[in-house]
Specification:
The complex is a heterodimer of chains A (about 260) and B (about 210). With about 260 residues, chain A is of the alpha/beta class. Helices cover about 35% and strands about 25% of the residues of chain A. The longest helix of chain A is centred in the first third of the chain and has 15 residues. Chain A is globular and about 50 Å long. The longest helix of chain B has 13 residues. Chain B has six helices and 14 strands. The chains are: A alpha/beta (about 260), B alpha/beta (about 210).
């Protein structure tokens, strides 16, 4: 039986993480490679590196980070942010990432999904979805709308439709981020998570809103998610990955034990 | 030296990096001579069976693998590399290498858990392996260790004698198979953290023999 995955997400800008992790000894570490290794050793099941750099020479920096991460960690990791072409995907995958995540780029150019899936296999293509709650309407019947550019732009696209469309186009996984819950630490958007997870046949990673271990538990049970993305609750030392997993195991959720 | 067979199938570098970390000499190559002289061969693979076999045959590497197997050279197949040692695959209806009798099948749909929840395909993520018989390459691996899987097809050797490990995802399937000097894992040891690295390390000193 598959374990539910716990996936730390690191935001990277110009080769540095934007939020350093605060170790128990109160040392800030801003190097994504060091942070990646830290979470690998703590028992993360996967790691997401999200590149929020906007400069033009960014590709080289990103590829360098991916290469160095791949030499240090021996679990899957994905890279998202600014992947606009099959060539961008190829660069990141050849540097050692297991998966690429496309979000705004996929809405601007949906053909990226089948082209990427054709070239590298569906398992490499993660469809990132930023979703906002709205009044249900004929155009947005689910009451959840896709937004882009980190939540700044509305699209008029129904999130449930887009999730199914993404799967049909060849995405191998969905990383579902609730803009309403993101940053609140009040819990994942469980209605949205369950709605999407129960309507697609590919794995769904819940994202946005984790503030406690109970929130993670809820996303994986009530939310029916296959994995949970965590950021602040692990970056600031509130919990370790191991503490989250021990609590999940105690509540009967299968999680991968990496400690002996 | 371990020869990593290069037939343009997926990310060979991750296998190379894991071996580098373990300080095990290796080389990614499509050169038949180099492969036949290597002490051991790793046969990785990501992608579709049809294309993989076509590329292998085009490069003449199908014959190298068969020859290396007959010579008794230790061989480790990974993921697609574990599938195409069988006789045939339902994926693209492909005739495979035939080192192991049996075939490769797609997970049935709908696929349900023991609690009757629908399960997803591909089988992607971390799962356990129940070891059916001890093997030197699996020394130190424990029941609770988990390994990283990504696949929609699974191996079904014709006889139980080929099964070394078993995994559950709606059905029980063979996740480690082999005989004589061949061992093959459906999961990715190079992406499976500490227990995965242990398997690669064990393989790097395996002589290709074990008590049946």
């Amino acid at each position: 039986m598959l374990s539910k995955r716990i996936i730390p997400c690191l935001d990277v800008r110009a080769g540095k993480t934007t939020k350093g992790i605060r170790f128990k000894e109160n040392v800030d570490i801003g190097d994504p490679v060091e942070m990646g290794r830290f979470y690998y050793e703590q028992g993360a099941d996967e790691i997401v590196f999200y590149d929020i750099t906007a400069s033009s020479d960014r590709r080289d920096i990103v590829i360098d980070v991916v290469n160095r991460v791949a030499e240090e960690i021996f679990i899957p990791f994905s890279v998202g942010g600014g992947i606009r072409s099959v060539q961008d995907m190829r660069d990141v995958l050849l540097a050692g990432a297991e998966k690429v995540s496309i979000n705004t780029e996929a809405i601007m150019n949906p053909r990226l999904i089948p082209e990427g899936a054709q070239a590298f296999g569906s398992q490499c293509i993660v469809l990132g979805m930023d979703v906002k709650r709205v009044q249900p309407s004929p155009k947005i019947p689910s009451g959840y709308e896709m937004v882009t550019h980190g939540g700044r732009s509305d699209t008029g696209i129904d999130a449930l439709w887009w999730a199914k469309e993404g799967e049909r186009l060849g995405a191998g996984e969905i990383c579902l981020n609730s803009i309403d819950a993101d940053g609140t630490q009040q819990g994942y958007e469980l209605t949205l998570t369950a709605l999407i997870s129960q309507n697609v046949g590919i794995p769904v990673i819940a994202s946005g809103g984790a503030g406690s271990i109970d929130h993670v538990y809820d996303a994986l049970t009530k939310g029916k998610a296959d994995a949970a993305l965590v950021a602040s609750i692990v970056h600031y030392g509130t919990y370790t990955i191991r503490e989250i997993k021990e609590a999940l195991l105690a509540k009967g959720v299968k999680a991968r034990k990496t400690w002996r | 030296m371990i020869g990593i067979i290069d037939y343009r199938a997926g990310n060979l570098k991750s296998v190379e990096r894991a071996l580098n970390k373990l300080a095990v000499p290796c080389r990614i190559t499509a050169d038949r001579e180099v492969l036949l002289e290597a002490e051991r061969i790793i046969f990785p693979g990501v992608g579709a069976a049809g294309k993989a076999l076509e590329d292998l045959r085009h490069l003449g590497l199908d014959r190298v693998l068969i020859q290396a197997y007959e010579q008794g050279k230790p061989i480790l197949g990974i993921c697609l590399g574990a599938q195409i040692v069988l006789e045939k695959s339902q994926e693209n209806n492909t005739r495979c290498l035939g080192l192991v009798p049996g075939e490769v099948k797609r997970f049935p749909t709908p696929l349900l858990s023991r609690d009757h929840d629908p399960l997803k395909i591909p089988h992607m993520g971390w799962n356990n392996v129940r070891i059916l018989k001890p093997h030197p390459v699996l020394a130190g691996i424990r029941e609770e260790d988990e390994f990283y899987f990504v696949h929609s097809y699974y191996t079904e050797p014709a006889s139980e004698t080929w099964g070394i490990g078993q995994t559950e995802h709606g059905i029980e399937f063979t996740s480690i198979l082999g005989s004589k000097n061949l061992i093959a894992t459906q999961f990715h040891p190079e992406k499976s953290g500490v227990p995965g690295l242990r398997i690669l390390k064990n393989f790097s000193t395996w002589k290709g023999t074990h008590a049946q």
